[in-house]
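hey so i finally got around to running both of the ones u sent me last week. sorry it took forever, my laptop kept dying halfway thru and i had to restart like 3 times lol. anyway pasting them below in the order u listed, first the sequence line then the C-alpha cell line for each. didnt double check formatting much so if smth looks off just lmk and ill redo it

first one:
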Amino acid sequence: MVKVASLQTKVGEKSSESFKSAEKLIEKSVSLGAQILCLPEYFSFSLENFEIASYSEETLQFLSDNSKKYDVLIVGNTIEEIDNRYYNVASLYKDGDLVGKQVKIHPPKGERLLGLSCGRNIEVFETTFGKIGVLVCADVLYPEVCRILGIMGADIVLNPVVSMYKEKDITKDARDSIFVSRSYDNSYFLIKTGGVGKTPFSRSKAVGRSLISAPWGILKRYKDEDREEILIADLDLDLLKEIREENYSLTDRNPEAYYKLLTYSPH
C-alpha cells in the first residue's frame, strides 16, 4: 500500500501566505501517514512583486526542503526558462533530491498568450513507490497523453490543477467521470489537486474540486471546493497490477490504424 495526499491549498495569495497554507497541509498530511503529496498548480504563485527566477528558486527550495524534512515525495509547479523559452514545469522531489521534471504539454491559450511554450516529452519516473507520471492541469483532458503514461506503465499519476469557477457550468459533475475513465483505460491511480482562492493570471475565483481515482472508481472527493482540504487514500499497487494484467486495451492496440490522430484536425 502507498498512502497519497491531495493538498487543496490556498492559491493566488501573497507568496508568504501560499507557502504557509501549503506547509500547514503538508505537516497535517504527513501526520496522517501520507508518503506522496500533490500540491495544486501554481500553488506558490503571486502577481505581487513577481519575478520568474526568484519565484522558481524559492518554490523549488520549498519543495526540496519539505520533501527532506518529512521524508516524502512531493510535486509542485513553477514557471521555468529552458533554452530561452518559458514553460510550466512540475518538479518532483524525494528526500530533498530532484526525482524529475514534467513540462506541461498543453498550456491553454491564456498561458500561451503570456509566452509559455508547449512541452514535447512525456516522462515516467521510477521511485520506491512505483512508477509515477504527471499530467499538468489541462493535460488530463487529452486522452492521447494519458494513454502514453499508461503504455509506459505508470502506477500513480499526479495532476496538479487550477480550476476556474464558472457561474453556469452544466458539465461540472460530469467531469469527475473523466478521471475514472483515465484511470480505468490506462490502469493507474490518478490524483487531482486543485487550489482555492484566485487563479494566477486572470485573478478569477479558483475552486479546488480535488479527487483521487482508481480504475474501479473515485476513492476520495473534495467536500468543499472553496476551502483548504486534504484528501488521503491508500493505493493498493498489487490490486492495480492484477487489473492491468487484464487490461488488453493496453497490450492489444493497433497503432497503424491511429494515423489520423496525426493527420486530421477538427473543423
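and the second one:
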Amino acid sequence: MTSPSDTLTSKDVRELLSNKYILILGDSVVRGLYKDLLKFSNVDDFLTEEELRVKGEKRFYGDRLITGGIQKGLTNGIDYEEVREHTAGGARRIRFYFLTRCYSSYMKNVIFNDIKNQAIKPDIIIMNSCLWDISRYGIHSMRSYQRNIDRIMGSFRQMLPDALFLWLSALPVSNASNG
C-alpha cells in the first residue's frame, strides 16, 4: 500500500520540469504521452479514452496546435503532420512533433532547423518511432530503420550534446490494430 507521500502529484511534475524545455517526438502513442503529461501537470488526472483518441485539435490543456492536424485537414498517413507546444509562463516548455519515420527529410529540414533557430535548446528529448518505420516504407524498411536510428542518435548527440535523450521502446502491437 502506498502512502500519500509516495504519490506523484501535478505539483511534483511542475517542479521537476521547472525551467526545462522538453522535446517530444513520435507517433500517436507518444502524442498520448505528451497529452497525459499536460493534463496530469494541470489537474492531477490522466487522459480519458476520448481525449486520447482526439488528434490535431486546436488546443489541449493550455497548449496550441502550431501546424498540421485540423489546420491542414490531415487525418492519417505517412504525410500526417502535427506540431503542438505548451508553455507555462516561461517556466516550462513542452513541444511535440508527430513522426512517421525516425530520420527523414522532415526531421532534417523541419525539426532540426527549428531546433537550430531556437535561442533555447531542449534539455530533454523523449522519442519513439518504430511501427510506422518498419511497416509503411517498403520491403527494406527494417534495414533502413536500423540505419536511421544510428543517424538520429548521432545527429542529436552532435547538435545537443548536453540534452538528456530518452528513447522509448515500442510496445507490443495488437493483431487488430488499424491506423
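quick thing i noticed on the 2nd:
Residues 141-159 form the longest helix (19 residues).
anyway thats it, ttyl
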